[in-house]
Amino acid sequence: MDKSGLMDNTGLMAEHAAATPPGGHPKDYHAAKMGMWLFLFTEILLFGGLFLLYASYRHRFPQAFHAGGQTLDVFLGGLNTVVLITSSLTVALSITALRRGELTRCLWLLSFTIACAGAFMVNKTIEWLAKFHHGLIPGSEHMFGLPEGQSIFYGLYFAMTGLHGIHVIIGASVLGWVMLLIRQGKVTAEDYVVLENAGLYWHIVDLVWIYLFPLFYLIS
Amino acid sequence: MTDAHEVPHSEDQGHALSYRFLTLVWLGLLCLTALTIGAAEVDLGYLNVVAALGIASVKACLVIFFFMHLKYENRLIKGMVLTAFVILAIAIGLTFVDVGYRY
Questions:
Q1: Nearest by CB to A206, which of B63, B75, B100?
Q2: Structural fold of domain A26-217
Q3: Most exposed among A5, A58, A165, A170, judged by the fewest C-beta atoms under 10 Å?
Q4: CA nearest A81 in B: which residue?
């Protein structure tokens, strides 16, 4: 298992031939997975750049970031952490279920994951609406009128949780699409790399939140 | 933990992790979430950030190695992931060499 996939040429070619559907284009399990990881690296560096901005400005405005963190709801943030971690578990479980041929269980687990994504977005909306209620609206004059450090804190908060929220919506949509493919028999116990790759995307969403939560909610 | 290795798959694609093992990883992640919230309540000064990032990184490793299956991938993908994170670390490290000494 741990041997390099590159060196195992004969095995790869046999697998390659076996995975070619009659009349269809050939599928390469390893290439599909590697392509997904390459894409995920761009995601890591995208969020990494924002974390870099966060770190630099927090270094420059420690008090403002401290005060800003106190205005965020640790309970809602913690709840969302639990929701996302649980949804990551159910995606991982759904892959095992699919590979064991337990299709119904797989689809239920994926439905649960999408429900978690919905719950996460509801919590996020409640949080953002509370901020809007206090006049903290991205691009508003009130926000620009705040002391420099605070407007940067809230700017980063909206930008980073907003970009993350977009990823939650995309991830849930992709999982919904994979559910459809499983129902149509296009993703099966033998050919499951699409579900694995969708799962990888979902775990990255969880991974980003694992860092966002302590950095924004727990710095008071 | 032996139960993680109970389903060896004959093919190159590796084995499916058992329900029990994945649930244990999830429990570990929940415990670490509780720990990070608890650690933030205690005033450790500078160490608060270190603790928060340290616990987050342990959680990230659990997600990457087990949920994302990296532990069971071939050396090529492992090397690629390592490279990506090293590049991120260099970017953050060098920025701090600049920012940290500027003011």
A1: B63
A2: Four Helix Bundle (Hemerythrin (Met), subunit A) (1.20.120)
A3: A170
A4: B33
Nearest residue of chain B to residue A61 (CA atoms):
B103
Residues of chain A with pLDDT under 70: 1-25
Chain B's closest residue to A215, CA to CA, is: B52
Q: Is the pLDDT of residue B11 over 70?
A: no
Q: What is the ipTM of this complex?
A: 0.85
- Which site among B67, B83, B88 would you substitute to test the A interface, given the most A Cβ atoms closer than 10 Å to its Cβ? B67
Domain boundaries along the sequence of chain A:
26-217
Burial of B93 (C-beta count, 10 Å sphere; 0-12/13-18/19+): exposed
Q: Mapping DSSP to helix (H, G, I), strand (E, B) and coil, where does residue A175 land? A: helix
Q: Where are the domains of chain B?
A: 2-72, 73-103
Give me the pLDDT at residue A41, please: 96
pLDDT of B99 higher than 90: no
Contact at CB, A29 and B67, closer than 8 angstroms: no
Chain A residues with beta carbon closer than 8 angstroms to that of B92 = 48, 51-52, 55
Sign of CA dihedral A37, A41, A42, A47: positive
